What does this fold into?
Amino acid sequence: MKTMKKMMVLVLSIMMVLGTTVVTSFAADPTGKVTVDNAVNGEEYTLYKVFDAKVKEGRQDQGEGISYSSTWLTTSNDWFAVDTKGNITITDAGKDTTDPTKLSAGAIAWLKTQTSNFTKIGDAKTAANNKVEWENLADGYYYVSTTTGSFITVDSITPNVTVKEKNTIPTGDKKQSDKDGDYANALLELNIGDTVYYQYEITNGKGSDKDIVLADTMTTGLTFDQNSITVTKDGNPVATDNYEVTGKSATGFTLTLKADYVKTLAESDKVVVKYTAKINANAVVDNATGNSNTATLTYSHQTSTDVVYVATYDFLLKKTDGTNYLPGAGFKLYDALTGGNLIAVAKDNTGYYKDAADVEIVVDSANGVNVRGLKPGKYYLEETTVPNGFNPLTTRQEVIVTAGQTSAPEVVVVNHAGTELPSTGGMGTTILYIVGGLLVVGCGIMLVAKKKADK
It folds into this structure.
């Protein structure tokens, strides 16, 4: 019997409640103290008194000399027995079959439904410096509820009880790729018009029992594909009634994993959200952080952000005769010195950008023209319209776009003036005429001289 009494006291002192932790204060006078250690800053913690307790001085450290009673629990149930004197003990069904020092799942679930019967100790406290404390507590059986989730465990059964926060907050990890795979946190360097593939991985925390909310926001240089969202767990689609997508627009969305679904997830379970966007003509050039995608994860009072970036680059094309601006030239852009693929572009009020429109790049200003939206690499300009009076380029001119560049490299294309060709026969014919004329004159002189000599 004595052994059973010790076991009962130990169980009541250490039992763990989903969403709560039961702790026992053992002060003869109201001088007991409960501390939540490892508390999550910003989260709320509430202390309740479950049962009254009477403690025999000097015996509490041995788990003896403690009796429990209650004004609200007056009859026995499956989990707790109440005798004719009002003393409360735990039933066999109330004990965990694998660890009798803990409550069974049924007892835990039942206690959670009885919160309204318990005595709330003051207002909820917000954790700061990873700690919450209550002092001047009377003898009793207490538990702590928290907005972080389901689990807090009891570490000791001393007059000053320290409760360790065991809940963990769900976390997120944002990655991107230029294809569906090989996701990483690294900067992507792409062309305007390319698709960016995003992956956001939500890792569930311990005891998570509330909505998990993902809010994704893109800068205007990215256009979100509103039909691209997929949600999976272990590679399998998550049923659509387990989450809700709201606020879809060209620059983002909000996705909420519903609390009822979150409660079914085990600690460290991963839910993967995938979606895509395209780099558009508003993309900032030569800037590693100009085109960003920010994911914000919210759980209870906790938020975290994760940002990934896309970069695209440009070059400045100028046309001269070797000294001065030369108007009237047009170009096409390729990815090879000969042959290769045409890099089609379109025109707007800031220059030309990579696009499927395929217009000619015309240099119409001494300041040059900007060609943007290109990933790092070598490109080649082919002259398609040559200024009047100037010789065309004989080969394509190389353009180098460098990864990480912070300003547009200047590319100068020079056309040289042509020279006037001789008229038909050229200068050689004129010389022949002159020489021939001189010969004729010479022959005439010689003929006249010979006749005179003959006479």
Observations:
- The chain has three domains: 2-165, 171-311, 313-414.
